[in-house]
Design goal:
Largest sheet: 8 strands, mixed
Structural class: alpha/beta
Order of helices and strands: EHEEEHEHEHHEHEHEHEHEHEHEHEHHH
Number of domains: 2
Radius of gyration: 22 Å
CATH class of the largest domain: Alpha Beta
CATH superfamily of the largest domain: Glycogen Phosphorylase B
Shape: elongated
Strand order of the largest sheet: 3-4-2-1-5-6-7-8
Length: 373
Amino acid sequence: MKLPKVAIISTFFDPIPKGGAEVATNEIINGLKKDFELTIICARFDSKLPKKDSWNGVPVFRLGVGNQLLDKILFSFLARSFVKKNVSKFKIIHAILESYAGVALAMISKFHKNTILTLQDSEVESDSLLTKNPITQFTYRWIHKKPRLLTAISRQVVSRAQKFTDYKKQIEYIPNGVHLHIWHANANKVKLNPNQIIFWGRLNKVKGVDVLIKAISRLKLPKIKLEIIGDGPEAGNLRTLTKKLKLDKQIHFAGFKTHKEISKLAQGANIFVGMSRSEALGNVFIEAQATGCIPIGTQIGGIPDIITHGKTGFLVPKDDASALAKMLRDLLKNSVMQKEIRKNLYSSALHFSWKKQIARYRKIYVKMLSRAY
């Protein structure tokens, strides 16, 4: 029996460094390749990479000359041309991320009816974009309006998309997921340290680790320890801030760790803190819940989709070290509250398993093929 052919368009793809959208692309491909005949279309970016390749048994077509700047500029047009030449082969065209892939899909939607765009971008803020210059307004509205179906990884992204489409297009809410077996692997195997706070993620300005360090300083509780896991462009500045605030004995920079290593460390920590300044969803908060680590996040983007304040974690305003310090102080001295919150964490994380999200994508593919949309 022949499987329906689906083209997956993602500007960035393995082995290019991965963000949330690229991780989602990999998971969608691995989850659906047994039910559909998939083809991956991506930018080349590196002349050493072959133009035609295979990834986990799925054909990969890398488009471009192998130059990062040129390939970004050209990718939308090259992807459109590739699909146009092979249009009769593909039953569905699915683009991931509303930038270069989104532009390609908008052009493809003129000659192919079954198009899906997955919205993942945390940097696109609708209110600011809608008040910018007319070209920006037109481009983002066009990207959102042309595909037959939109999926969005958070309710905040759904709301943003509704504005761009004037509330006239159906938008399916499908969050990114996590592999719960990795993050829950060490449950009840590691002794909990009630004075241990932890962060893991990329050390850049968006993650707000500087706010967390300042909050630890405001706590003035020497017994509290903070483990910072990860690397990135802000690592040096964060170490400097730690020394300036004389927190060397309380804060440890652990560098890069694998997911399995982080899971084990997180099982022994009491609280995870992520003071993100921008976050389309925030998978790290799901990971924290799966480990049993109480998450504290900010009231932005998709984080409130994951954390119900006072039930499955806590939310504080972004860039507010004082509010975070107060929240930490109140939580650290209330062991009863900690136990009540911890009871709810794994059941919350279960809603975000990749198994459930892949089933949702499979369902919309089937509905689109049956013209139910």
